[in-house]
Design brief:
The chain is mostly beta strands. Helix content is 6%, strand content 54%. The protein is built from six helices and 37 strands. It has a 22-stranded antiparallel barrel. The radius of gyration is 25 Å and the shape is globular. The termini are far apart.
Amino acid sequence: MNSGNSGIVAAAMIAIAMLAPSARAQDTAVTRLEPVVVEVGRGAHRSPLELPFAVTVQTPDSMRPGQRHLSLDETLWLIPGLSVSNRNNPSQDPRISIRGFGARSAFGVRGIRVLRDGIPLTLPDGQTPVDYLDLESVGRVEVMRGSASSLYGNAGGGVVDIRTSEPPPVPVSGALRMWNGGFGTRRLVAKAAGATDGFGYQANVARTESDGYRDHSRQRMTNGFSRISYDDRGGSYALEWLGVNTPVAQNPGALTRAQFEANARLADPLAVTKRARKAVKQSQFGLTARRSGARGEIEASGYVGTRALDNPLTFAIVDVDRSMSGGNLRATVPVTLFGAEQRLTAGTELQLQNDLRRNFTNCNNAPQPVVPVPTLTCPNVGVERGTVTLNQRELVSSVGSYMRDELDFGKRYTFTASARADAVRFRVKDKLITATNPDDSGERLLHAVSPMVGILARLSESHSAYANISSAFETPTATELGNQPSGAAGINRDLKPQRSTTYEVGVKGVGESRLQYNAALFATGVHDELIPFDIPASGGRRYFRNAGRTSRRGVELGVGAAIRQLELGGAYTYANYRFVDFTVDTSHYAGNRIPGIPRQTFQASAALHSSIATLVTEGTLVDRMFVNDANSESSPGYALFNARIVSSALWNGSGAELTLGAQNLFNTRYISSVSVNAAGGKFYEPGSQRSIYVGLSLLAASRHSR
């Protein structure tokens, strides 16, 4: 750890606390557990104090105002057990992990189910692209941690359900937000929202441009979100859309340690030579309906979407045209059996994914003589796309049925038992069949049953303790099954899904001074864990294999409090994650740490409200991370500090708000993410150094409330 920066963070927090008595009281406060109602758990709406597993509910913008909504690492803050690695690579999504699941992801989010208002963004094969996820309209985030989330299907780490904010209680309101910051970052957002007589609407569109901290990391993106809703006494209904158009998102790649030490802003020379980047268009519509009454609750949802991806990489050019759809039907019924009150939930979920995938030879800067001439793989001189190396239809379907029963014993104890049965089918239809290229069509079915039992004890009205035993399974994605180390096409028959079993105990509650806390202690055993690796001369293509067994033991602690005008929050994670049984050729890795996961992480925030402005400070301390299975190299630990001031005092009553902030205030040089087991020592993805930014928000609303 960087002890100097750690001291600065601590000193700043203490200084802010000393200023608290002179500030003016505000209405905002740290999120309290008891009045919050969450929808995780595949059951009726419940308080987190009534759920026998680790769950965190955050309201990011109210707890830490002044966010730019550029990346999920802003939104998913102060959640113990969860980490977000901002790769500073616009072509690659942030790497999200919960209890270490997802840390291995080469692109997209893996090992975690991600939802928007209950509708899955995660595909049936377990991969989640989050580049089209709008963050402007987020009201709260609900996070389940651990394999108790298995009722949501194909994932081992947990569930992140991002919920849209409620529309303002006026017929018409609008907002315009403008941001300008370091490394050529510019963002313009327009919003409109309102509600009357049970009807509500929200819509926003944002244009983001950035030259990027690193070389070859330019981005141009337009994304949007809209939602129409209707609520009455018996239920609620909503139709929403989200989409993105990113014509340019360059990929700077990862660096060796020597390259990082020489120039952290450097891009991988091969990524520049091959013009690695992506262009993507995606659109998704979702419909939800819920009815509730004395006899129970029923909910139905469905979605459809399309995605078009043009993705030049160092080893190939990947072209994907995707359509996806799905639906969920769930019912919760209260019953009384032998004098005991129960809540029985049952549901079925279906997801479909249809990809047309084509790979081409990447002919950018292909070796040419002084006078360029055509080659077999690059027949058209000066044309980026060469010969077709892969042309296939990939069909993935997932069907999952689940049941959950909650049995109350008096007013203090609740016993919960649940199970989900999943079947995930992968089919490949080869469209590139020649005399020298045989038909690689095939099919593979992966299935599992994932049970969970838990017990919760209400220690008082505002404190509870729980314990659970749960299991989960996670399949390889379609891409992971298709990338075979042998070079063959079709489906990898040897790669297995990973399965995990977790034992967990925890406490949570609300105390004086609006204190809220949650703590969890867990042990997870994983069989056939999916491990990424590279092959030298593969050009950066990622392959996967199964480890024998791994062990995850950890402690998670989250705490928040509001002391007069000061809001404080903290999250600590201890992660002892190791290989138990893992041998590759003649190398034995038993006892080694699982790479890509820091052993200790601490995050803290403080928001001081006054009549003049709100001062927000954020600090994070991250332990070192090993970067390969052999634990022969590691990235150093680091401490970061962010700060911003949000004020409307100069334009009091006008609806204008000014934000001035700094990311990485002390200009720490650090590695924000690692590429596990990368070939050629290209493990390291540098974090951005200091960036100053300013934002101006203009708000307007009609005077009539509903």
